Amino acid sequence: MLELLSLTPILKGLIVLALAGVTFPITGVYLFRLNLLPLRFMLMHGAILGGAMALALQINPFWTTIAVNLVLVVFMARSSRSMKIDAGQISTFFMVISISLAFIFIYKFNVPAKDTLTLLWGNLFILSWAEVIGVGSFAVLLAGFQFYFRHQLRALFFDREIAYTSGIDEGKLYYAVVFLVAITVALAMKLIGALLLDAILLLPPVIASFHARSLKGMILGSAMWGGIFSIGGFLLSIAIDIPASSSIAALASVVFIVMYLMRRK
User: Fold this and answer.
1) Are 191 and 174 a contacting pair, CB within 8 Å?
2) Which of 194, 201, 203, 247 sits 20 to 30 Å CA-CA off 31?
3) Domains of the chain: which residue ranges?
4) Is 2-264 in CATH node 1.10.3470.10?
5) Do 116 and 48 contact (CB within 8 A), yes or no?
6) What integer is the mean pLDDT of 105-134?
7) Which comes out higher in pLDDT, residue 227 or 58?
8) Helix runs in the chain, H state only
9) Residue 232: band (very low, low, confident or very high) from pLDDT cuts 50, 70, 90
10) Local confidence band at 120 (pLDDT 50, 70, 90 cut-offs)
């Protein structure tokens, strides 16, 4: 195994997964606390649209998917506020329109559908060093954001109106949270694919909620479990020769079942 880890593509995959595993579950906590779980489906479809556009225009899909998701988030947040509709509901519309546009690009530019749909599976071993640095920089940004705004976020998650009356610019903070979620989903799809996205985004916060007694405990627990699943699943995939994304999801699922049964007892 040590010989395999010395190979550059595998080493890059391990580094990126370790960084993502420890930090990406933070946005999973945001999704739960703000009741934005449907948002991730819109972002998953937006990433497919970004991939189709990138392949049609022959540019790097890594940054295109992030850009498309950010645009979708802006329109969703503005529409939700102006129309006074729940963000989870309005995201359904953008989910539909984004996948429709994706297939228009596929059809009009003769983009092989299988190339676009590879985003559903992800691929750790084709990352460039620039992409590794990009993921690492975002991981640091996400951790820094959580630490710096931890008190404001606690108020926002408790009640947005109370946060506003407390002097917190809850509108800008809400936008920042949703932007971070959008980038996280795009990057996680690149790493482990859309179909197994929740293994690194949502299962760590769910398991952390079994024993956490505060927001801080849930954040730290999510980071711990995310790191265990990512690194452990990656090493397991190399040891028994299975896809890393499937290994991570399987490990997370087994831990979830064990923790759930222990909690019931």
Assistant:
1) no
2) 247
3) 2-264
4) yes
5) yes
6) 77
7) 227
8) 2-5, 8-23, 25-33, 39-57, 61-83, 87-108, 113-117, 129-148, 150-158, 160-165, 170-192, 198-201, 203-208, 215-240, 244-264
9) very high
10) low
